[in-house]
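Could you please consider the sequence and fold appended to this message?
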Amino acid sequence: MDLVKDNVVYMDESNLNILPEATVVEAAKKMRDKKLSALIVAGGG
């Protein structure tokens, strides 16, 4: 069974992250363009 961590190894980490300052629309566009179902909010506090 494939685990998320096994698949992430093959992906560019920048494709999975978004900054907390990004808008919902920016996040939705990134998810659509990269065919992702979720993003990791990176940075911040």
Q: What stands out?
A: The CA atoms of residues 25 and 31 lie 10 Å apart. The mean pLDDT is 81.
